[in-house]
Amino acid sequence: MKNLILKPEFVQQIKSGYPLILQEFFQEFDREIEEGTILNLYDKKKKFMAKGYYGLQNKGHGWILSHNVDEVINTELFKSKINTALNFRKDFFENKETTAFRVFNGESDGVGGLSIDYFDEYYLFTWYSVGIYKFKEMILEAFTQCIDFKGIYQKKRFDTKGMYLNNNDDFVCGMQAPQPLHVKENGAKFAIYLDDGAMVGVFLDQRDVRKAIRDKYAKNKTVLNTFSYTGAFSVFAALGGAKNTTSVDLAKRSLSKTKEQFTINNIDLQNQHIIVEDVFLYFKYAVRKKLLFDMVVVDPPSFARSKKHTFSANRDYVKLLKEVIQITSKDGIIVASTNTANFSMMTFRGFIDKAFKDLKIKFKVLESYSLPKDFRVAQKFQENNYLKVVFIKKLS
Ligand code: SAH
Question: Stretch 118-126: mean pLDDT, rounded?
């Protein structure tokens, strides 16, 4: 346990519920502090403000767990937070058509540095710091007391860049999940691999976007899905009646993984093209061949490095959009997405404006999406409201 004195200018912020602990909040901060140490935060007059834990992430140095001076950080506390989180997702648990969603979203559910996802009675815990991992036994004990499950898996994303740490200990307890585990999302199926590296096969935060593509946009369209990963957007487009889909991703695994997602949804592979290539090279090819698509989905990582390119969403999104606009047919739809936390929806809309203006092409924003309900965002921590998706119609 460690007692820390807040600089006066940060007292109000902590008091009002800001959940992240940053080194600069304190008069003195011991860098040698051990991960998982309980931190008690006081103002200058030694009045108690909050308590949390030390855990180094790229974001900061720990998270607030309670504003109650008498709170003991124990199984009971985690139980109460987990129960509240589970209750908040009651609708999801009752919905038979969707069996994959987030049940615990870090600081928004009261414990920064931890997320828990549900995959048809299996749970995936993601630990974002050594500090929170120190509470693993306590948190698992609490979880086990809150709900029945078939099995628990984990991902450790500890190193300073939040990278996945592969220790071959992804399986934690209970029954092992089938590989793949078939889950449902709004009636469609996904093959999930809980024990096969950092990513399990689907990004749950895009659920509402996929549904919109299937239910409102895809019918009779030719669809290009760039940075397609396992082709989740293509699957929904195909299910929505797309004429054909083209999925482009650099990773070799994307070919077999995307085929698998189509196959388990009984989609004929005939009209689904899967291309393993650098998207930026594909754009050049598409322009040369004068290809035009009725709908283009573009969902790049915040940062990516390929042989020929480094891409950073901050710096290069406008350029990326310009390439996309050129291969979108008139009246076609562009689904522009980013999961970059460090710029706002307003900035993103600015990127879209600039790309179209530079090309002297008119457009109309049809609708936009941010995180779905299960990825709740704490009122006091909007910086984690990272997802921005805009549906744009290309005019003339
Ligand atoms: N849109 C996907 C998720 C994208 S994840 C979905 O919703 O499921 C980002 C993907 O971009 C990864 O699969 C990665 O392999 C791919 N990627 C990164 N750089 C790339 C590049 N230059 N060209 C093609 N794919 C790239």
Answer: 98
